[in-house]
Each structure stands twice: as C-alpha cells, then as structure tokens.
Amino acid sequence: MSKVFEFMKPYAWMLVCTAVLLGAEAMFALILPGYMADIVNDGVIPGHLSVIWRNGLIMLGITLLSMAAALVVGYFTARTATGVSNDLREAVYDKVLSFSNAEVNKFNTSSLITRTTNDIMQVQNTMMMAIRQFIYAPIIAVGGIVRALDRSTDMAWIIVLATVIMLTLMGILFFIALPKFTSLQKLIDRLNTVTRENLSGILVVRAFNTQKFEKKRFEKANKELANTERFVNVTFAFMTPIIALIMNLTTAAIVWVGAQQASAFRADIGDIFAFLQYGMLIIFSFLMISMMFIMVPRAVVSANRIKEVLETEGSIIFKDKPIPFPENFKGTVEFRNVDFRYPDATEDDDNVLNNISFTAKPGETTAIIGATGAGKTSIFKLILRFFDVTGGGIFIDGVDIRDVHKEELHNKIGYVAQKASLFTGTIRSNLFYADKNATEEAIERAVSISQSEAFIAGKPDGYESNVAQGGANFSGGQRQRLSIARALVKDAPINMFDDSFSALDVKTDAQLRAALKEKMGDRTTIVIAQRISSIMDAEQILVLDNGKIAGLGTHKDLMKTCNVYKEIAASQLTEEEVQGV
Q1: pLDDT value, residue 494
Q2: Which tens digits make up the pLDDT trace of 109-131?
Q3: What does pTM read for this prediction?
Q4: CA 40 → CA 100, 147, 323, 331, distances in Å?
C-alpha cells in the first residue's frame, strides 16, 4: 500500500479537511445521546416543556451540521479516491508502454489488464470506505466508551464484553479469509486469459469444433474463481447475523441491568437511554471496522500487484544523455557479430542468433529468409530495441542504437509487424496513427504504394469507413496493406517489413514491391519473406539457419553457393525457374 500512499500526496489538503470534518461529525454523533438523556431526565419526567423544546432544537441544529459535514466528506472522499485511481491507471499504463517484450511476457497481457482495471478498482472502492471509516469509526468507538462510562460505570462490563467478542470474531475471520484474497486476483487473471484466448481465436475454435473443450476450460477457470469468492463471501456472511446477535444481546443486557438500577434509584432513565445509544454507536463502529477487514486484505493484495508493475525495472535501459544521430542521416543499418538469447532462456538453451554480421544500405533492399524459428523476426526486434543484444552491437549510421534515445530511434524506422494490427476507429485515423500531422498528399501516396486505393474507394464511406477492433472487419490482405500504408505515412528513412506480404496474392505482391522500389527506392528497406519469388530482385539476401548466417548475397550468388537457399528454392520454384538461374 505504500506505493498507493505516494499517489495520495496531491490530495493531502482534501484528506486534512476530510479528517477535520469527520472528527466534527463523530463529535456531533457523540453529543446527541447526552441531549436525549437531558430531555428525558429534565424535560419529560418533570414535565418541563421548555427543556424539551430547547434541547430538541439544539439536537436539530447539530443534526443539520452533521449532515452538511457528511456531504462535504462524501465529496472530498470521492474526489480523492477517483483521483488516486485515475493517477494509478495512468502510471501503470505509462509503465507498461515503457516495458520491453521481456517485461510484458513476464506479467502476460491478461494480468496487466487485470492490474490496470480490477486491481485499481479494488483499491479505489476500499479507499472510498477507508478514508471515512478509519477516522470516523475509531473516534466513535473510543468516544462512545468514554461517554458511556460517564453515564454509568455499573454497565461498563457489557460494553467491554461486546467489544472483546467483536474483536475476537474479526480476528478469526481475517485469519481464515486472508490467504484466499491472495489467490483471488490470480484466478481473475486466469479467467481473463482463457476468455481472451477464446474470443480472439473464436474462428479457430469453431473450425476445429473444440467448443466443448474450450467451454470446459472456461468452466474450470470460472468455477475456481466462483468457489474462492463463495468461500470468502460465506465466511464474512457469518459476520452480519453474529453482529446482529451481539447487538441484540447487548441491548437486552443494557435494558435488563438498567431496569434493575432504575428500580433501585441508582440510575436515571435518561442515562440508561443514553448508555443504550452509546452501546449501539460502539457496536456500529466495530461493524464499520469489520467491513474494512473484508475489503482491506483484498485491496492490499491488489495494491501489491500494482506496486509490482510500477517498480519493475525495464530490461532495456536508455541513457540519460543519449547520442544523437548525425544530421546528415542516411539509414545504414549494420550488425556486428551480434549474439542474442531471450531473457527467460536457461543456461542450457542455445542462442537465438549467433555471430550475425551484415549491412543494410540506403537505396537497397535487404531480404531475410530462413526456416521457421531461424531467428528472422528476432533481428527486427533487436533493431527496434524491443530486446537488447547479448553480444556484439547494432549500429545505424555508425551510432550504437544503445546510445540513442528511444524516440529518436523509432522515429527513423517505419515498421510493419508480422501480424497486421489495426486500431478501433476509421481507416483515416489508422493512417494518421503514424503521423498525426501527415498531409492528404502523404496519405494518398502511402495508400497508392500499398495498393489499397481500390478497396478503400469501394467502401461507401471511403477513408471514414469503420475499423473494428484489430481490423476484424477487413480481410487479411486488406489489413496487411493498411498496415503497410500506415508505416509509409511515417515516411521514415528505414522501412522494415516482417513477412508483411504473406496474405497478398502474387499479382498484388508484385505491384506493391514495384511501387516500393519506384517511390521509396532511396530508403533502407529490410524485408523478412517466406517466398523466394518475391525477393529474387533484392540487392542482398540474408539466409538464416538455426540462428546462424548460412548465406549472404544476391539470388544468383546464393543459388550457386548456399545449400540452404537452394533447398528453399527447390521447394518453391519450378524446375525451369531453378534451371534458369
């Protein structure tokens, strides 16, 4: 919770005002039973109507002041709790955006979503109650005991007994339920993971007729969560009837003992009424505290999960004083003896990349090809510094990318991921995502190069056509072309395409590559490809095999010198195409 307290500092003045008003509200509540006792003792029994009126008006005034204080407290409490939760969400979101792939994989996406939403909501709800109850309830409890003893010491044992029973009950329930709160949030993570996988892969689920299997998987996660929540709720459900029983027994004991004292003329009837009211206030204060015993443990678990995210140091460290790229930036990308293994790899695991050295030059296309798992995409992740190399170095225009500021590095690169991902909005908003200040001319140029003109024009709303989450309302080829267009809008000197043409037909693929060559030919272009036919004209082809360079050169050179490349060509090209090399 210490991390949460840091976010409460901007609202310190509200908390001070709230504490003062809660103290006043508690004092008002403690004063009222005394006036009630005076009305009975000095007004009702002697028949002094003026005393009844005077004390009644005073009680009315105190009640109105208490209501006003409660309203202001409610406003300040809501402002503080919602403000802190808003700041927490922004802090967690900003932190997650700074994470490398290693940190995202450590937590997993579903857990990060739960921490940003459900966990912060738990903290907010608890804070709403805690700000009030942790100040108001103790004052009422202590003040009630003092005021009750002032009215009658002979009945003090009743209050003491009720208090001991209440504390013992809360301690037992807290001890039983606390371990369950720790597992509760993890079970929510698990349920979110299963749900997310089922919804995102719904087409695959239907295609393989695995609805029953996925339903059982969901039911298992859902049942584990439901059983845990049921245990917690049932455990604390016992509290309400037990507290009601304690309250009624306390009331009966006070009335019974008070009646005996009144009959023996050792206590005034008004004092007995006041003592009864103080007894109820004390019990209600413990009831409020008991409610916090229900919410605080879960909030503490949630706060620790939030703290875990906020205090996680990124594995990618950017220097405080970065080195800028040269003013005459060209975009030459050079790998020098690069080795790489993923952060979660064990000592027995081999490197993903071993001794990789090559240079991608402006005005040339460097293609990367190899079997699945050869390390092609890892090269792109290293250029973007989603991970850091474990050996060697990557240089752009002679500058080590580890010495460059993150924003400057990414501003120089137009990147199209292996999986085309669009954002909810319109086609236009997705294109402007690369550069919010892009001109219409730049948008149209990017759309033309990516071969997206025809299908955009064919939509009734054109550029204003709706884009569903992830671009689900577009075909795979359309999503890829829009993703390519988005990268080209950025007009970066380095363009990287991670198997971004795989969903295109051969004709569209050829037209798109020809347009790239014609209109973006002066840029450094790095392409990961699966089809040899689409990279045969590349100035340089890098062949990867199990993380090592198996060949480097043009198509013709590799067909003569690289067995791995010849095997790929033989599996994709016709015999005439192979012989024609």
Answers
A1: 93
A2: 878 888 888 888 888 888 888 88
A3: 0.71
A4: 72, 17, 83, 91
Residue 451, SS3 per DSSP? coil
pLDDT in tens, 303-317: 888 888 888 887 777
Q: Which residue has better confidence, 310 or 184? A: 310
Q: Contact 496/413 with Cβ under 8 angstroms? A: yes
Contact between 100 and 315 under an 8 Å Cβ cutoff? The reply is yes
- The stretches of 264-316 forming alpha helices (DSSP H) are 269-310
Q: Which residues lie below 8 Å from residue 230, measured CB to CB, with a gap of 6+?
A: none
d(CA 417, CA 183): 36
Would you say residue 266 has pLDDT above 70? no
Which three-class secondary structure state does DSSP give residue 549? strand
Which residue, among 465, 460, 462, 497, has the nearest Cα to 481 in the 3D structure? 497
Q: Where are the alpha helices (DSSP H) in 108-155?
A: 109-114, 120-151
- In this prediction, residue 496 has a pLDDT band, given cuts at 50, 70 and 90, of very high
pLDDT digits (tens, 9 = 90+) for 20-33: 998 888 888 888 87
The rounded distance, in Å, linking the Cα atoms of 42 and 52 is 8
Across 457-483, b (16+ Cβ under 10 Å) vs e yields eeeeeebebebeeebeebeebbbbbbb
Give pLDDT, residue 544: 92
- Written as six digits, the tokens of 297 are 């443990």
Q: Where is pLDDT greater, at 574 or 467?
A: 467
375-381 own/partner pairs: CB under 8 Å, 24+ apart: 375/340, 375/544, 375/546, 375/547, 376/498, 376/499, 376/528, 376/544, 377/418, 377/498, 377/499, 377/528, 378/340, 378/352, 378/353, 379/335, 379/353, 379/528, 380/415, 380/496, 380/498, 380/526, 380/528, 381/101
Q: What is the DSSP string of 320-367?
A: SSPPPPPSS----EEEEEEEE--TT--TTSPPSEEEEEEEE-TT-EEE
What's the DSSP call for residue 524? E
CB atoms within 10 A of CB 418: 15
Residues facing 333 on adjacent strands: 360, 396
Angle, helix 49-98 to helix 120-151, in steps of 10 degrees = 150
Contact 486, 514 (CB under 8 A): no
Return d(Cα 298, Cα 123) in angstroms, integer.
8
Q: Of 101-105, 303-307, 384-388, give the lowest mean pLDDT range.
A: 101-105
Compute CA 247 distance to the chain's CA centroid, rounded to the nearest angstrom: 43
Distance (Å, whole) CA 42 – CA 298? 50
Please identify which residue in the block is written with the tokens 């996925």. 214
Question: Which tens digits make up the pLDDT trace of 524-542?
Answer: 999 998 888 888 888 999 9
- Report d(CA 469, CA 492) in Å as an integer: 26
Query: What does the pLDDT look like over 442-465, one tens digit per residue?
Result: 999 999 999 988 889 888 888 899
